[in-house]
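Exam revision sheet. Question 4 asks you to relate a sequence to its structure. Input first:
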Amino acid sequence: MRLKRFSIFESHEKSVRERYFDNELNRQILEKVAKKCYLPTNALMLELLQKHPNMRVSYSLTGVFMEQCKMFAPYLLDSFAALAKTGRVEFLSETYYHSLSALFPSKDEFVEQVKLHQSEVEKLGGKPSVFRNTEAMFSNEIAYLAQRLGYDGILTEGIEHVLGWRSPNYLYSVKSCEGIKAMLRNYKLSDDIGYRFSAKWWSEYPLTADKYAKWLSSLEGDCVNVFMDYETFGEHHWEDTGIFEFLRCLPTEMGKHSNLEFVTPSMLVKSAGAVGEIDVPHVISWADMERDTSAWLGNEMQRECFGILQELEAPIKELKDEELLSAWRMLQNSDHLYYLCTKSLSDQDVHNYFSPYDSPFDAYVNFRNILEDLRGEVKARQKA
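Answer key, structure tokens:
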């Protein structure tokens, strides 16, 4: 939910959600991306699922995305429901607000958001049994929390400083967690599609479905977890790059290899055993070169705003005001902190691509003004 350009002189006759969130911009962007990506890709996925009885796919949809669909494009949510009806589409669980609540000292808010999200996903199709935290943020503690919430599996990034010499193409147990298996994203094969598909400088350009299927078939291991932004199809790589044709041909090309099959995450955690244990005491993610939390908490501006969000939890919940609670949670969305990132070179290019602001400092001033307004609103209602 993108923010309005906020003025400290904004009328307090409006609700906090009207003051903070730019509904018109959110509607325009959702409709644009739905037209370029979500609707054509969902239609193609449905066609492929009907054509290939062994094809399966999984999605991780945030609660914020589903909420915007209900507000601006209910037909879009219907297209995901149609996929779910095939019985071969699975939805992962995550935090409803795509937040960093797993990093709060108290985990109550994290647990509440996960339960909110699970309830919403069940309306689309089935109870999720595999968890994917915001931006694949993961640690031993986060895995333990997911296990306590009843999940059988958790998805995160398959990075070298966690795995060492080992491959991401297996399931692993997590230190001090006996009841959950870690699925590790194969970031090279995911990014070959997600980032490099239309890169003419890439030595493997053009990437064809038969080439990709051969790569998959040649790998050792039990699984290959390919996970990327859905906007890969039609938005990050436009239709004229051949991305839809690649997707259309992939199940046929995979079918030519007897050692390849599609499985959902829940099928995988039930059928494959853990081959070893991973120990992740510090939080990792799938973002940037560092694969840690620095994309959201790497500078003082970000940490300051995150501190205010944490500080507001207790007073807002004590007020028992649904409007304030909802606005505070919407402000936790990780993108608001992501826009404040001041990294350099290639990582910053990615941050700039997604940001609606002129600079991270511009983003900070706007976000901080809104947080200060919310803090003032809380104090006013405490006195009322």
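Marking note for examiners. The two ends are 29 Å apart (CA to CA).
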